[in-house]
Specification:
The chain has helices spanning 11-52, 159-167, 282-306; strands at 54-56, 68-69, 77-80, 83-90, 95-102, 130-134, 141-148, 150-156, 195-203, 209-219, 229-230, 235-238, 246-255, 258-259, 262-263, 268-276. The chain is an alpha+beta fold and 307 residues long. Helix 1 packs antiparallel against helix 3.
């Protein structure tokens, strides 16, 4: 029988060598399982997120035709799509500030008596109900159910503010037509750089500001008067710049038409289809935990073999 020279591996070296083989094989297997778990979790989360993105479209509200809710029940606001819209109603003066919701479709009547109508005559895409905001010194505020990222919102002018800006008709004779020479109210567009601006401010759970986004509901500051505009349709405002931990949104307006007692322009706007991201799904957390556990276990195994 032929003889073979045996190669003898010292025991400690053999143990370490076998340990490295086991470590590589087991780490790859466990890493593959963890990676698969994380991939499935993220995939599932993406599917859920696409399905669960919350769109506040006021479809959960109902009204008789051409009517509105203005907080006269003293509820202090209303909730739609999980978001709470602040309202303050004064029964003595039958007045309100904050948010109302409406399906009023009057796009032609100027003045305060038509304060609940969006200039579009309907919500986004022809939907019936939309929200109306009124800033009377305290900003209309939307509170979300948890800190999150807000994708954006559609906004437009109310009929009241639109006709006041475009025609100088607010029913009271206080406002001027935008673009007028301020020394000659009602004389027509002579290039005065007027503007009407909506500012949306995000706040976190501690009430700290996360950011602000400005949107011009009317802008007459262009060198060419042909570029001047007042918004008469629904416009999307991207709010992702407010961050990932937004708990509330404050809406405030400002105008170039200011008189002795403050803003002359009716301080209203309309809002629809507020979109925010739901809370992270549990499966993402599970996937991340599994991945981290494998990485930690692998480092511990490697340290044990080396020692």
């Amino acid at each position: 029988m032929p003889s073979f020279d045996a190669v003898r591996v010292p025991e400690p070296t053999l143990v370490r060598w076998l340990g490295w083989v086991w470590l590589i094989a087991s780490r790859r297997a466990r890493a593959a399982v963890a990676a698969a778990t994380l991939a499935v979790a993220l995939s599932f989360s993406g599917t859920r997120a696409a399905a669960d993105v919350v769109t506040v479209d006021f479809a959960d509200k109902s009204l008789p035709p051409n009517s509105f809710y203005n907080g006269s029940d003293l509820a202090g606001g209303f909730t739609s799509g999980g978001a709470h819209f602040w309202n303050n109603y004064n029964p003595q003066f039958q007045s309100w500030i904050g948010f109302a919701y409406s399906n009023v479709n009057n796009t032609t009547t100027p003045g305060f008596t038509n304060q609940y109508a969006a200039i579009t005559g309907s919500g986004v895409g022809g939907a019936g109900i939309y929200a109306v905001g009124f800033d009377a010194g305290l900003p209309p505020t939307v509170t979300l159910p948890f800190p999150t990222s807000v994708s954006g919102v559609f906004v437009t002018n109310t009929t009241y503010s639109y006709l006041a800006i475009r025609d100088g008709n607010d029913g009271f004779g206080i406002v001027r037509q935008f673009g007028d020479d301020p020394s000659q109210p009602g004389a027509g567009n002579q290039g005065h750089p007027d503007w009407y601006r909506l500012t949306i401010t995000g706040r976190d759970a501690s009430d700290a500001v996360t950011g602000s986004i400005e949107f011009y509901l009317a802008d007459y500051r262009f060198a060419d008067n042909a570029d001047d505009y007042v918004v008469g349709d629904w416009r999307w405002v991207d709010l992702t710049g407010l961050g990932w931990n937004v708990k509330s949104l404050e809406f405030s307006v400002a105008s170039s038409d200011v008189g002795q007692f403050g803003i002359n322009t009716p301080t209203y706007f309309a809002l629809d289809n507020l979109v925010y991201v739901p809370e992270p799904t549990a499966c993402v957390v599970i996937g991340v935990v599994a991945w981290c556990a494998v990485r930690r276990r692998g480092r511990e195994d490697q340290h044990a073999i080396r020692s």
